[in-house]
Amino acid sequence: MRIVFNTFGTLGDLHPMLALATELRHRGHDCIFAVPEVFRIVLDPLGFPLYPIPPDLDPSNKALIADLMDLRRGSERLLRDVLFPALPETVAHLRAAVAADGGADLLVSGDFAYAAPIVAELTGIRWASLALAPLSFYSSHDSPALVANPAIAWLEDAVPALDRAIVPFARWYTRDWPAAVYELRRQLGLKRGRNPIFDAKNSPQLVLALFSSLLATPQPDWPHDTVLAGFTFFDNSQTGAANPASATSNLPAQVAEFLKMGEPPIVFTLGSSAVFAAGDFYAISAAAIEKLGARAILLTGVLPDGQPRGILSPQLCTAEYVAYSDLFPHAAAIVHQGGVGTLAQALKAGKPMLIMPCSHDQPDNARRAQRLGVSRTIPRNKYTSDRAAAELHTLLRDPATAPRYTAAAQQAAAQIANENGTVTACDAVEDLLRN
């Protein structure tokens, strides 16, 4: 069978699809990616054909990335200024990718693939959609945290009526955002259809929830044909298979050497999106490590020429990129932005976390991780070296609290080890193809 995968975003959006595509290719299916050109550098070495789909954002455009990662307006800017204006062209390109080479048998779309439901309706192709984080469902029975403010999150927990008002408010607040989508559907001769942001993105045939039940369990208002598969992992040796914690053969030489120099380090990362709008996160983090008297590895993304990198001292090492499944098992704790892919890898490694959420699903992911007892949260505007050092002390060194976080993290890792999101999701895809 020929399967077209369509998504937009960052590696956090691409990697779950790569896990599925790798397994489905192993089962004998042809897998093609209809994604922005920026992903070619990842897909070509893996042998997956790429059909370029607009829009194709330039990650070096720091002003734009900062706008898209803004806590309060980032999601609106992404949809209204980037994705929805490009939708006519995106639909045309995706429709061509689906029709190419004799036609596809299945379309699989990601969270931000707003062209997919339109193309599925126009062509009649079988269609499965992915939900990478609980926020995707906007459930009134398990309301999301929409702001990175622990005080407000606590208030939502304490006042159920407020919690139940979150989703209706979100629908009202975003009511004008999809105007361009409705206009395109009119031009294509389609009915207005369901709300693109909340409803239409979910396939009526199969929705794959690619996150662990640790984060959320099925709710009455989830889409009817939802399969809660679990996390899918892809970032290690092109297969997603994690190394044992004792192995360092896949690590960059300077990182492997640094790990041998002392106690397990704290790993700081901003994933594959917020890293392009890092601000002073890494400078503050380095100062926090000095205050704490700990060791750290900073995963900084691509650094400009002339910037210090590698082993800077026995306490500090920087690297542009290291596969999380290679590095996280060696860490004492993970400090990150709350992206669901990073969160999944930290949970899998069984490590306590400090989360500084930036935007999109990250505040909600941070809230759910904190409820599990595996993490603590600092709002981005309150991320200081003193605050970070104090929170890390609570996570790792305070005898009254650290054992509790360690135990919760190890318990979460044990549950994830019993899940196999990739196999479960691919079984569901094949069931859809057979029907």
List keywords for this structure.
435 residues, alpha/beta, Rossmann fold, 7-stranded parallel sheet, 7-stranded mixed sheet, 18 helices, 42% helix
Structural class, from helix and strand content?
Answer: alpha/beta
CATH hierarchy: architecture of the largest domain: 3-Layer(aba) Sandwich
CA radius of gyration is 21 Å
Q: What is the strand tally? A: 14
Helix content range: 40-55%
CATH topology label of the largest domain: Rossmann fold
Q: Within the largest sheet, what's the order of strands? A: 3-2-1-4-5-6-7
Annotation field: number of helices: 18
Distance between the termini: 13 Å
Biggest β-sheet, characterized?
Answer: 7 strands, parallel
Q: What share of the residues does DSSP label as strand, in percent? A: 5-15%
**What's the CATH class label of the largest domain?**
Alpha Beta
The general outline is globular
What is the assigned CATH homologous superfamily of the largest domain? Answer: Glycogen Phosphorylase B
Question: Any idea how many domains?
Answer: 2
Unreliable segments of 5+ consecutive residues: 237-246
Mean pLDDT equals 90
